[in-house]
Amino acid sequence: GDKVMQIRNNYEKEVFNGDIGLIDSVDPSARELTVRFDARTVLYDVSELDELILAARHRKLKLGFLWFGAWKNAQCYYAPPWVKTDLERFRRAQPVKGLNRMTLPLFHGMEYSTLSAFCGETLRADSRAFANLMAHLREFDGEEQTVVYIQVENETGLQGAARDHSDEADALFESEVPEEFAAYMQGPAMATLREDVRRAVEAGTPSGTWREVFTDQAEEIFQAAATARYVNAVAAAGKAEYNLPMAVNAWLEIGKAGNYPSGGPVGKMLEVWKFFAPQIDVFCPDIYVIAIVCGVVAILGHMWTIYLKFRGGKGVATSAGVFFALAPIPTTCAFITFVILVAIWGRISIGSIAACVVLPLVSWCMNYPLAEKIMVTAVGLLVIYKHIPNIKRLLSQKELKFEDGAKKRKSHENK
Can you tell me the mean pLDDT for 206-210? Predict the structure, then answer.
């Protein structure tokens, strides 16, 4: 799970200021949070949530809390052990028919499993626990209102397929689309539907099965309807206890449904969510591409530095630092190529250009996100472009070797 840091010494639990741990599980019914510090597991009581509220109140801050119930990053990371181990009662979604667990090729073979949005028992347990939390917040913070909103679940949806393929989901997919929803999508929603969804709705029948009504967008719309219904019920249970604004967030849409969590509140599914989840007040994006954007800005800033009148270096070292973080295996291959060629030819430019060829080639051969592949390719071409003067000197055999350049610089310094 997520990393957490102990911010004050706790001698009773033997964890101290600065200790880093990983969340193992959250059990709302038992009001417990389990954190793993190295080989030790430490149990925290939910009453420490009150301490966080008091600390924020003391500093005149406002808080928004995230509820990790059935979903955290499209998986059931934080579901308590008694939920995770009872597959009969708390059914799993099946991206592949008959499989409760699978690996995701696009995510480096990561093992994947998540709770089913169609399981009533999971929904009841999630709703009860969330309602208990909201009742506690009302009692502890209702007057001061330090907590101003709640995010219900986190990055909901299903990876590995556009919809759940369990027997239950298959039967529902072949059933009739609710009449009111079909009329809504074919009427009021039509003006704001994204173009590909609008075309699919226009091509469908006025009523019928999900495939008949929503054609090539049917599976994602079906999954979005189920997920939105689930989240809406949890939010409604919470609001019945304490009526705070409720939000959801979306893993951004990159590639096809299933590469990103299908059924989540992405832009193309907003109309579906607004219909089935009226209890949700705010829809938010989760912008993971920010790391890529920051990396590109750092590289461009080194190549064309504002303070040097848009002149600067060739960006090789900065690019290496960025790519070691984003794509370590391809960057390692590129670095090895760089070292070998510089050792053989004695020219850094040869190593740099070759590394910029190897890096995108290896990236495209691996299961990295499309945005990262495009980034490394674009930056590699850009770095090669910056080396055009070096390429010309190499062709005319005027490019200095590494040791010759070092001698020349030393000679200038001595003068």
Answer: 98
